[in-house]
Amino acid sequence: MSVNNIPAFIDNIDGRNKKNKLFLGLVIALSVLTVLPIVLIVSKIIINGIGQINFNFFVQTSPDSLQAMSAIANQETIPGGIANGILGTFLIVIVSSAMAIPAGIMIGIYLYENQGRRYSNFLRSTTEILQGVPSIVLGIISYLWVVKNITNGFSAFAGSVALSIMMLPMIIRSTEETMKMIPNEIREAAFAMGTPYHKVILRILIPTGFSGLSTGILLSISRILGETAPLMMTALGSTIINYNITKPTSAVPLLIWEFYNDPNMVKLVWSSALFLMIFVLTLNILSGSLSAKRKTGRKK
Amino acid sequence: MSSDKVTKTVLFSASLLVLIVSAGIVFSLAKGSIPAFKEFGLKFIITNEWNPTSGKEVYGALPFIAGTLITSILALIICLPLAFSTSLFVAEYFRNTRVANILSSLVDLLSGIPSIVYGLWGFYTLRPFIIKLGLSDQGFGIFTSSLILAIMIIPYATSLSTEIIAMVPDELKEAAYSLGATRLEVIFHVIIPTASSGIIASYILALGRALGETMAVTMLIGNSNVIPSGLFATGNTMASIIANQFGEASGLKLSSLIAIGLILFAITGIVNSLGKYIIRKFS
């Protein structure tokens, strides 16, 4: 904190005031420039994507290139939809959540209960490193572990393993932060009545921290929903609706990638991107409003 | 009493999962890259060639290491003034106002957009714009990728530094004002020196984000496996060569891609640890 090197403020007050105003102008201009891309991106996707959104878009599987081509030639909307991608995304996300959420909450509670121990600190640093691992590396890992050795081929489960490793550190962190906010008196009161430890966790800690935990869970799901690269190496994609976790499965981001690479399907790219973006942003806003509710709830 | 012990044991065993997964990642990456390092030795890292022709197979990671570092650092440089202004706008100039709230939630929106959607926008909007400006013929390349990366990491660079700037004690600022300092002088002589470590840490963590980004860069960098010859030349990054070639790879090529994954893992690990270390040391 080198607050002591403030220069003499006496001379040239006009110049200093001018500089001051100039800088404020610069800050405002650059802040506006920062917002510009988000406005451009969102409006581009809405404008280009809205045309293809109809009922079939949600209930039919993706068309092949020929169907799309003849539809374009006849100036019709492209038939088919992204049902295989939507259901595939659900399948993969549900399986990842089933693995990452229970484990993440348990580990988060463990970290909270064992504050300050050397093992906990080591665990926390490891979790931070795990959080920083690029998703493409997790794709390689899941390919080596699951595709090669467990499902012997590309599969929804392999995708789920990659995404659950992404989710795990986020859930651990949010659980620990949530636990820290629960007043210690509540736990102590429970223990004082002789409540067994597992009941304190299941009946006191998790219900009390429920909104905090769900915020973390929703955020982590919104983070993995748009992941493409690790799924390309694990779930691969599929033109049919698949519910078997040991078989290749499509996902919305995978469909975007396929449509992007096929000149006939370009129109579908935007509607799929619109769908994915609305889905992700809804989760984000939902988790944001949950945590806002929690904050105002505490003030009362 | 014994049921409590069971619960504690269960929690402890769950915690081992993190260690097992992390150790497993390092182990599997290392094991997978053994054939590549056996064939090329440590020269793999500094070899500037990527030739999959069978019989004359040579793989080196240098073009991709260079591509990743150049795009990420350039992205950080582009992002810096934008993120810093936004932080000042939200945490200093218009603190707790409605417009600051709107600005910060808009910036948060950026972190919710999937990488592939950024790639689409970059391909269909940014790339034609680059061509129109006459900066490059195809619009692909280092600069286009860095620009999209810069937009993508703005929320990460902004959120933490905004928090840190908001935390600078009012007493320090008031002391400077009482000496007759203008707001600009308060920012540069009080706020930045006080918050510097946190601001730097948040930019380092944003850099860590940029290093591992895959899809958007893959769609914009041009995917040529050479060291980029200039700002508007094409290139390739570690993440995008893996994404592009992993599907059809086997044998030595697969091992080389895994080795690139290992190097990427190490670089992001170092950068992230550095950021976390600065935060812990100075907060």
List the helices and strands and how they pair.
The complex is a heterodimer of chains A (300) and B (283).
Chain A: H1 13-49, H2 55-59, H3 65-73, H4 83-113, H5 118-132, H6 135-149, H7 156-181, H8 184-192, H9 197-208, H10 210-225, H11 229-232, H12 252-260, H13 266-299
Chain B: H1 2-40, E1 50-51, E2 58-59, H2 62-93, H3 98-112, H4 115-132, H5 142-166, H6 170-178, H7 183-212, H8 215-220, H9 238-245, H10 251-282
Antiparallel strand pairs in B: 1-2
Helix pairs in contact in B: 1-10, 2-3, 2-5, 2-7, 3-5, 4-5, 5-7, 6-7, 7-10, 9-10
Per DSSP E runs of 2 or more residues, the count of β-strands of chain B stands at 2
Shape call of chain B? globular
The residue fraction in helices of chain B comes out at over 70%
Strand order, biggest sheet of chain B? 1-2
- Strand residue content of chain A: under 5%
**What is the structural class of chain B?**
mainly alpha
CATH architecture of one domain in chain A: Orthogonal Bundle
**Strand/helix succession of chain A:** HHHHHHHHHHHHH
Fraction of residues in H or I helices of chain A: over 70%
Instruction: List the uncertain runs of chain A.
Output: none
CATH topology of one domain in chain A: MetI-like fold
What is the number of beta strands of chain A? 0
Oligomer: heterodimer
**What Rg of chain A do the Cα atoms give?**
25 Å
CATH topology of chain B: MetI-like fold
Radius of gyration of chain B, in Å, reads 23 Å
The CATH class of chain B turns out to be Mainly Alpha
At CATH's second level, what is the architecture of chain B?
Orthogonal Bundle
Distance between the termini of chain B: 40 Å
Tally of helical segments of chain A: 13
The main β sheet of chain A shows up as: none
Give a short summary of the structure.
With 300 residues, chain A is mostly helical. Chain A is built from 13 helices and no strands. In chain A, α6 crosses α7.
